[in-house]
């Protein structure tokens, strides 16, 4: 029992279960999944479907945070990828042609990769703090996205493009399949190969891992490029879902939600360890929260209040310092600042 | 790197202490931008253009001062934009909806901002949660409170507020500033005094330099960390009051993304985001540079507003690279 409570995915899982229980009580038919016209429908499917872009972005963010970094620019990359793809598709003679759409998607994803590599270069090559390095692209990228769309909203009418965010495949929404594929690939690469271990060692101590023979620079660039690629795919999904690209609002604040998802999932912002499963749980918590707020009839104006409350509670419960102070009041006098003591030992 | 260049740099470094270089570069950039604008555009090289930058950015200046305190300790405050919006919203509701007197409203708003900052600082310190996450939750909370108060824009008709909004303090020669600028400059002066001539200011730099060392030296780390977030909350609330003078309305969507402008201003001003190094004067110059970019783009006329963002991004890039160059040679 104790081992279950100590597991780092315990609290996120409890939160998600609590949210789902809330829905079981307050919402009728929340758990019913129906088959209509060969597609699966239901609130649970919707949660995963609308949460798909966030899960993708958060998965990329997890690896970046595992190296001890952070990527604030994902929201801008989301906007740029969507804008570029829609621009290319709107220039096609036949917007329905699969080849043209694939080319547009390829260009958008290639640009996302390049932007991610740029972030990685600033962090690993120029040695700039990740939060500042990606702040540059976060500010400038929003401007670039608006430059691409010329400040307008580009609408497209393309069946193949619509498939990514709004279509179905094998009875499931296509977005869910994409997310599952990316997650499976990431999990395989990081947990079945040594890559995950290398990433964690770079996050633990970049200099020590370099001395141990790990190419930390190349690894960091790869991780940022991967994060931007995930953001690019998410951007395609978001813009495809509404068949338009909005340089100003697409992916606005998604970086904050993604970082939140990672932290709720139990990955420390200090780096060195990560949990992809936790991140998926975290992203699902955020999306379920949004859905719950709508379904139990909390007025939409208070959505953010509710979110703030849940975030605070989840983060507090996960904080070892809080648990110590709240649950073991007597133990406090013995070791008032455990984390600080540990740090002293490490540095000494 | 050639020997001559290195020697030249050393000579330069001997005459100007290296810690002042980022601030001086920002100052040089501001001057260069002003001269370039004056050469290129008719009517640009006018004192009022500079004063207008102050008038249009007084609220950002106050918010950025608070942000400087937080960043100097190595933290970050993402909640400032929403606290600004919340302040305009509370002011507008109480003034227009409930007929409160202006001084009471201003006092309440400032207290709310400081209390929010205090709460965030306490959570950050005592529960050891990253500032990024705590202030992010604070950002959601403040924005959420705005929407709970009302989703529409509320205009302010209070005579005291409108009078303050319309007053022009004449400086002679056709130049004028608004009362908000005076408030902002007083805040800057007080903050500069606190940072450089009081114990709290020294503690802020010490905690930013190394929290561990500060703790071992017996400095009040807890008090300092909580104090900087309180200062930032207070400054955001004051910035919100100034913004309500400027806009004469309260709205939940005011000041969206202002935290980024404030952080950008602090970084352009040469303060390191890792904490422990930087000057308030740099932040002032950073705000002025951001304001001047907007002025230049409005003078240019044909450039669209998104170029502002691209320019700010490029400037951030240039400044951070510069800081790296200076920082790398210090080691």
Describe this structure as you would to a colleague.
The complex is a heterodimer of chains A (348) and B (331). By secondary structure, chain A is mostly helical. Chain A has 2 domains: 48-295, ABC transporter involved in vitamin B12 uptake, BtuC; 298-348, no CATH class. In chain A, 71% of the residues lie in helices and 5% in strands. Chain A is globular, with a radius of gyration of 21 Å. Mean pLDDT of chain A is 84; it is low at 330-348. Chain B is mainly alpha-helical and 331 residues long. Chain B has one domain: ABC transporter involved in vitamin B12 uptake, BtuC (Orthogonal Bundle). Chain B has helices at 3-15, 21-40, 47-72, 80-97, 102-126, 131-149, 159-166, 179-197, 199-209, 211-216, 221-247, 258-268, 280-300, 306-330, and strands at 154-155, 169-172, 175-177, 249-250. In chain B, helix 3 (47-72) packs across helix 9, helix 3 runs antiparallel to helix 11 (221-247) and helix 5 runs antiparallel to helix 11. The longest helix of chain B is centred in the last third of the chain and has 27 residues, at 221-247. The radius of gyration of chain B is 20 Å and the shape is globular. Chain B starts with a helix and ends with a helix. The relative contact order of chain B is 0.19. The interface between A and B is large, with 50 and 48 residues.
What topology does this entry show?
The complex is a heterodimer of chains A (348) and B (331).
Chain A: H1 2-6, H2 10-26, E1 34-36, E2 39-41, H3 43-66, H4 74-91, H5 98-125, H6 130-149, E3 153-155, H7 159-166, E4 168-169, E5 172-173, H8 174-192, H9 195-204, H10 206-211, H11 216-241, E6 244-246, H12 254-264, H13 276-295, H14 303-318, H15 320-327, H16 338-347
Antiparallel strand pairs in A: 1-2, 3-6, 4-5
Helix pairs in contact in A: 2-13, 3-8, 3-11, 3-12, 3-13, 4-5, 4-6, 4-11, 5-6, 5-11, 7-11, 8-9, 12-13
Chain B: H1 3-15, H2 21-40, H3 47-72, H4 80-97, H5 102-126, H6 131-149, E1 154-155, H7 159-166, E2 169-172, E3 175-177, H8 179-197, H9 199-209, H10 211-216, H11 221-247, E4 249-250, H12 258-268, H13 280-300, H14 306-330
Antiparallel strand pairs in B: 1-4, 2-3
